[in-house]
Each structure stands twice: as C-alpha cells, then as structure tokens.
C-alpha cells in the first residue's frame, strides 16, 4: 500500500547517503524490497493483511516472500476493492506474529538492507507488530525509494501532473510491468525493478565508485521461493 502521507510510528533506521548507494550495492550487500497491505493508514489501530518481499543483490534475484495475514479486525470494503484481499481470503491465514517470525528468517540478519516506497508507512506497521510481540523494532537499515527518486529525478517536480513519484507512476514511466497493483508481492517486485533503474540513472552522481565493478557481476543466482 502506498498512501501519500502518514504519521505512522515507530520510525526505522534510514539510509540517506545516496551518493554512495552504488558502492553499497556492488559491495555484496543483500537487499530486500518489501511492501505491506493493511486495514488502514494508522499502524496504531490498523493491521497488516499481506507482506511481500523480494531478496536480491548485485548478482540477481535470490528469493521471494509472500504471505497473507489474518488481522484481528475486519478489512474495510473499500480496501477489499482496492487490494482484492477479502476477509474470506484471510480467514484461515496465520496471524502477524507467526508471519513476522518467518519474515525475520527470510531477512537472515540485520545486515540485509530493506527497501520500501514511502518506507515509514511499511516500517511503521512492521515495527508496531514487533512491539505487539514484545520484541524490539527491526534493526535493519532501510532505503526509502521515494526520496531517493526525488534526489535522482528532481525534474519530475516541474511536471504539471501531480504524483510523479508514486510507485505505479514510476513503473509506467520506466516501462516496468505491473501485474497486480496494490498487492504486496507484485509491488515488491515492481519496487526492485524500479530500484535497479534508479541506481543505474544515479551512476553519474555516485562517489567513491568504480564503474568497472559493474562488469564484474556474476550470472544471476537461481530464484528460490520462500
């Protein structure tokens, strides 16, 4: 889910050193692009209904994660229509505490860097569930692709049409195929592809980075489903 703004808390640890993003990416770091669907916009009173993620590094895609979640409150009708996640679909699904245990295993440690679009929204729901479980917030550093896109493409602000930095708008601009908008698994995959494009376009602005590192990339690893 990608709302225009939110006051969701708690906040996560953010990576904002965009001029060294390429160095981070080609140094062997593992990334997880993720997205959540929820029952509303307030992480204090609303709950996740789905979490989707794609794990990858400079060699390629590694694994995917997708799980519907049964929330303790009904999914509002307008969100059923937006996300196509119905109360009937999640009736027999695991609760958030079980899903997040699996998601943490999927992350495989605090060194994995998270990526989300309007990240404080998704982090707010993720970390609120951690708090409800009696656990600390997720320690992983997170890249918010929304301000990253604004940094790489400041000219988009000059366009008359609003919303040029929305995930689906960026996908259309960059010819990234959208299979199922407002579903966490496909939004996460779209986000990964957009991140690759943003990184490529930001190369001229990167510091302490040798472009010869790109040519040393190995063949993509075989995709595994989690």
Walk me through this protein's architecture:
With 226 residues, this protein is an alpha/beta fold. Helix content is 34%, strand content 17%. A seven-stranded mixed β-sheet has the order 1-6-5-2-3-4-7, sandwiched between helices. Strand 3 (48-57) and strand 4 (60-68) form a beta hairpin. Helix 7 (167-173) packs across helix 8 (184-202).
What is the number of E strands? 7
**SSE order:** EHEEEHHHEHEHHHE
Q: Low-confidence runs (pLDDT<50, min 5 residues)?
A: 4-8, 217-226
Share in β-strands: 15-25%
> How large is the radius of gyration?
17 Å
Oligomer status:
single chain
Task: Describe the structure concisely for a colleague.
With 226 residues, the protein is α/β, with parallel strands linked by helices. Helices cover 34% and strands 17% of the residues.
